[in-house]
Design a protein that fits this description.
Number of helices: 12
Number of strands: 10
Structural class: alpha/beta
Helix content: 25-40%
Strand content: 5-15%
Strand order of the largest sheet: 3-4-5-6-7-8-9-10
Distance between the termini: 40 Å
Length: about 325
């Protein structure tokens, strides 16, 4: 395993970070989820990312149980706040001081820890003054319940405003967690250069584009039984944007590039996002323990210029780049 600094901080995290968004507490049984976490630990992964909203808090509980007994100081545990949880009442969502202060306590209890290494704003909240949000995050840090703060799916302007307030409050906003893959590059023109300027790293989710970049979805053929594209509870809606023949055909053209690089398609996809200097980690999940080992083999891989050029030639026509697609929710979901 390779490790990278997160933003302009002294915190090192594993460049392959284990995330349990679509699996723990919903898609796979708890014992299998625990096996996946143990496999991640065995492969040298030390960084684990979750959120209170995943499986309506159940994912945090599963992760807490799976990590129980591990030396806490050897782990980096991340979680997030914003989306509705619990009974989803009027204050069970958003980034108000009330919701943040109550949510961190619930997350710590479920994760069975006294603190998280990184507490992230899961989206930007247009209904709460940013000053209120950042003050609440600063208080969470000063109370020792989080060491650092981060954001997820914020625009470049929102990140800049958040970092400026964090500096005024003497806390460190060091990370952004956006979607990023060979196919989805909307952060490259604005979020990445702004983040690099401000000392913020990316922890990217969906580097394999919900599994499309494995090449298992073939144009003109039905999705494999049991795959994410067939699972309404496992992200079928998220993967639908890629289930088009032109995209799937382009992805098939990546197979010889992966073979020439000595990588599986999944490893090629993960290695590709890690070539970006502003990316600190690629988030990977697993529904089976063996998937973890496959993804970890992308750690430390350096793709040469020829491979990077061939990738762009293979899929360039289907890549999505518009930075405006980093969308802020128009209002809280209740």
């Amino acid at each position: 395993m390779e490790f990278r600094y997160l933003g302009n901080s002294g915190l090192k995290i594993s460049e392959i970070t284990y995330g349990n968004w679509l699996t723990h507490g919903s898609q796979v049984e708890n014992d299998v989820a625990t096996q996946c976490v143990r496999a991640a630990l065995d492969e040298g992964i030390s960084t684990f990312d979750t959120a209170d909203v995943y499986a309506n808090t159940a994912a945090e509980t599963v992760l807490g149980e799976a990590l129980k007994g591990e030396r806490r100081e050897s782990l980096e545990i991340f979680t997030k706040v914003y989306w509705p949880t619990g009974p989803q009442g009027k204050n069970d969502t958003g980034l108000s001081r009330k919701h943040i202060m109550e949510s961190i306590n619930g997350s710590l209890q479920r994760l069975q820890t006294d603190y998280v290494d990184l507490y992230q704003a899961h989206r930007f909240d247009v209904e709460t003054p940013l000053e209120e949000t950042m003050q609440a995050f600063a208080d969470v840090v000063r109370q020792g319940k989080a060491l650092y703060i981060g954001v997820s799916e914020w625009t470049a302007d929102q990140i800049r405003a958040g970092v400026e307030l964090a500096h005024e409050l003497n806390v460190q906003l060091i990370s952004s967690q956006p979607q990023y893959s060979m196919l989805w590059r909307v952060i490259e023109d604005e979020v990445v250069p702004t983040s690099a300027e401000l000392g913020v790293s990316q922890i990217v989710w969906s580097p394999i584009a919900q599994g499309v970049l494995t090449g298992k979805y073939v144009p003109g053929q039905a999705p494999p039984a049991g795959s994410r594209a067939t699972d309404d509870k496992g992200g079928a809606d998220m993967i639908s944007r890629w289930m088009k023949d032109d995209v799937l055909t382009a992805v098939q053209d990546l197979k010889p590039i992966a073979a020439d690089s000595g990588l599986t398609m999944a490893q090629l996809a993960v290695a590709w996002v890690l070539q970006n200097d502003n990316v600190a980690a690629a988030l990977v999940g697993a529904s089976r323990p063996e998937q973890v080992a496959d993804n970890v083999n992308a750690a430390g891989v350096k793709l040469d210029d020829d491979a990077m050029k061939r990738i762009d030639e293979a899929i360039g026509s289907v890549v999505i780049r518009d930075p405006k697609l980093t969308q802020t929710p128009k209002g809280r979901v209740v």
